[in-house]
Specification:
By secondary structure, the protein is an alpha/beta fold. Helix content is 42%, strand content 14%. It folds into two domains: 241 residues, Aldolase class I (TIM Barrel, Alpha-Beta Barrel), CATH 3.20.20.70; 71 residues, Orthogonal Bundle (Non-ribosomal Peptide Synthetase Peptidyl Carrier Protein, Chain A), CATH 1.10.1200. The strands form two sheets. It has an eight-stranded parallel barrel, surrounded by six helices. Strands 1-2 form a two-stranded antiparallel ribbon. The longest helix has 19 residues. The radius of gyration is 20 Å and the shape is globular. The two termini are 39 Å apart.
């Protein structure tokens, strides 16, 4: 059984990656229902939290049915990160996670996210202060390095473990790569198989199929896998991967009815959590993923992403389930 501190997260846990504008409570509820073992909030700005910014504070919402759940924070200033850690701890998650991996310009431009990979001593000091600021287990999500010349993740993992983190998740790309090219798992494997490491090491990057989960488990000996983009509009991925690991066989893919049911649940939860207007608006980014590959769906999908009436959206989703031309 893999443990983060005293928290059991499964024999070979599958983690839902923290994804901005994706891994909110409505989406997390679906992923939990379909087999995710550990999930994280969208990343939360430490500066936003300490300024009491509404969007940042809203992201602190966690629910008992999601547990174990981690709140992920990011920032560059030690005092702000310490205060944000205290505020996040008060929201009663199971884990505090630090983002040292976000590659987007608006984050790294403020010295946060993957930018901290350019200053390992600061990363070490910042992490140590966060560990001291909470009684919850602290984990880290990071990348291999800033660029090809700074792939120091083996040393980084040791140093962060030494100051008290309880697990590390590593995306197999540098910041310079963003999400381009193939994820390189060799260094993730080196971190895991480093005899100095005794905390769980989770790998992330390009794990989209049950076969790939089995490959990285066997080849790199990681303690678990973090799933990101492959889960968007496809929460079934977690159970499919677990079934394949357990039996070597494949579950049947979701039917049209399954897709409509999941999408409808996501929509209703989104409206319940965010309010009708915002809930409908923010669901629009998910429809193409839920109905990817379905023939003759273009016109109906256009209706889904332009309609403002919840009643009409419900009717449109029901129509997808009924009409034969949408069958695979």
């Amino acid at each position: 059984m893999v443990k983060i501190g005293n928290i059991e997260v499964g024999e070979f846990p599958l983690l839902l990656a923290p994804m901005e504008d994706v891994s909110d409570p409505p989406f997390r509820a679906l992923c939990k229902a379909y087999g995710a073992d550990l999930m994280f909030t969208e990343f939360i700005s430490s500066e936003g939290l300490i300024r009491d910014a509404a969007k940042s504070v809203k992201k602190l919402d966690v629910f008992d049915q999601e547990r174990p759940i981690g709140i992920q924070i990011f920032g560059a200033e030690i005092n702000s990160m310490k205060r944000a850690t205290e505020l996040a701890t008060a929201a009663k998650p199971d884990i505090i996670d630090i983002n040292y991996g976000c590659p987007v310009k608006k984050v790294v431009g403020k010295g946060a996210g993957a930018a901290i990979l350019c200053d390992i001593p600061k990363m070490e000091k910042l992490t140590a202060e966060i560990v001291k600021s909470t009684d919850l287990p602290v984990t880290v999500k990071t990348r291999l390095g800033w660029d090809e010349n700074t792939r120091y993740v083996v040393e980084v993992a040791e140093r962060l473990q030494d100051v008290g983190i309880q697990a590390i998740s590593i995306h197999g790309r540098t910041r310079k790569q963003m999400y381009k090219g193939d994820a390189d798992w060799t260094l993730i494997g080196e971190v895991k198989n480093n005899p100095r490491m005794h905390i769980p090491v989770f790998g992330n990057g390009d794990v989209r199929t049950p076969e790939r989960v089995r490959e990285v488990k066997e080849q790199y000996n990681v303690d678990g896998v973090m799933i990101g983009r492959a889960s968007i509009g496809y929460p079934w991925i977690f159970n499919e991967m677990k079934h394949h690991l357990r039996t070597g066989e494949h579950l049947a893919p979701p039917t049209i009815e399954d897709r409509v049911t999941a999408c409808l649940s996501h929509l209703n939860r989104s409206v319940e959590w965010k309010g009708e207007r915002l809930g409908i608006l923010e669901m629009r980014r998910h429809y193409s993923s839920y109905f990817k590959g379905i023939p003759n769906i273009k016109e109906t999908r256009l209706k889904l992403v332009t309609e403002d009436s919840l009643e009409v959206l419900h009717a449109t989703l029901a129509d997808i389930e009924r009409r034969e031309e949408f069958a695979f």
